[in-house]
Amino acid sequence: MGGGMAANLVKAGHDVNAFDLSPEALTRSRDNGCAVFTSVREAVVGVDAVVSMLPNGKIVASVFENDILGHAPTGTILLDCSTIDVGTARSVTADAVAAGYDMVDAPVSGGIAAANGGTLTFMVGGTDAAFARAEPILAAMGKAVIHAGASGAGQAAKICNNMLLGASMIATCETFAMAEKLGLDLQTFYDISSKASGQNWSMTSYCPVPGVGPTTPADNDYQGGFATALMLKDLKLAMEAASLAGADVPMGARAAELYAQFDAAGNGGLDFSAIIQTLKD
């Protein structure tokens, strides 16, 4: 996703320094107009803003502590677009502020296609001042930039959103599987339910059935899109957050269990809508 985001920053007129552990990603970044570097420390020298997207909270904490804070100019606005736990987001932001930086947590929704198309939704946590600095940068990469609240609120919103997405996708998948077993034509069922009270994003924008609704990963053998392993990661974060908050989330918990089983069966690289295959079986 970071590659598409960087390309859109270039299109918006920004000079972009890029770093990634993947040589292929760096090549694509160079082709998209970015200057590429061999380390984070080199990439952040002299910049006005740092946008990061990293796999998990442990890596975020390490990269900021060792490669960004004290290496990017003091006063730089830091935007972490990773999806991580709320506690780490708040801790890293506190360290950044103590070191003289403004920082926001700004996880995204929309997937690879939205990253490439510049239509991501950003959920942003941070102070009003930090959000004001971050908003025009994020707007170059997304269709919606929403201030969710104080530090960590962006991560809280992302975790809640993706728990809802995971549960609603499973409900959508099992409904289509049942409709087929009841002898309904799936396109006809889609035409009915997409205009009735069962309508939801997982059905109308990301239908898990090939050939039904708009083009989705289901039409490409469930390749691309939002990987099952990433959905499971977000659901695990949601379960951790629910436990800490004392929230009762039976549907979210069941979604986490089903995606854990689907991932363990070797399907982590498939789009998360591919779970319909298990439900149909």
Question: Characteristics of this structure?
Answer:
281 residues; mainly alpha; Rossmann fold; N-(1-d-carboxylethyl)-l-norvaline Dehydrogenase, domain 2; 2 domains; three-stranded parallel beta sheet; three-stranded mixed beta sheet; 8 strands
Write the layout of secondary structure elements.
Layout: H1 2-11, E1 17-18, H2 23-31, E2 35-36, H3 40-43, E3 49-52, H4 57-68, E4 77-80, H5 86-98, E5 102-105, E6 108-109, H6 111-117, E7 120-125, H7 128-139, E8 142-149, H8 153-181, H9 186-193, H10 201-204, H11 228-245, H12 250-267, H13 276-280
Parallel strand pairs: 1-2, 3-4, 4-5, 7-8
Antiparallel strand pairs: 6-7
Helix pairs in contact: 1-6, 4-5, 8-11, 8-12, 11-12
How would you summarize what this structure contains?
With 281 residues, the chain is mainly alpha-helical.
Structure description:
- By secondary structure, the chain is mainly alpha-helical.
- It has two domains: 2-150, NAD(P)-binding Rossmann-like Domain (Rossmann fold, 3-Layer(aba) Sandwich), CATH 3.40.50; 157-280, N-(1-d-carboxylethyl)-l-norvaline Dehydrogenase, domain 2 (Orthogonal Bundle).
- 53% of the residues lie in helices and 11% in strands.
- The strands form three sheets. The protein has a three-stranded parallel beta sheet, sandwiched between helices. A three-stranded mixed beta sheet has the order 6-7-8. Strands 1-2 form a two-stranded parallel sheet.
- Helix 2 links the parallel strand 1 (17-18) and strand 2.
- The longest helix is centred in the middle third of the chain and has 29 residues, at 153-181.
- The protein is globular.
- The mean pLDDT is 96.
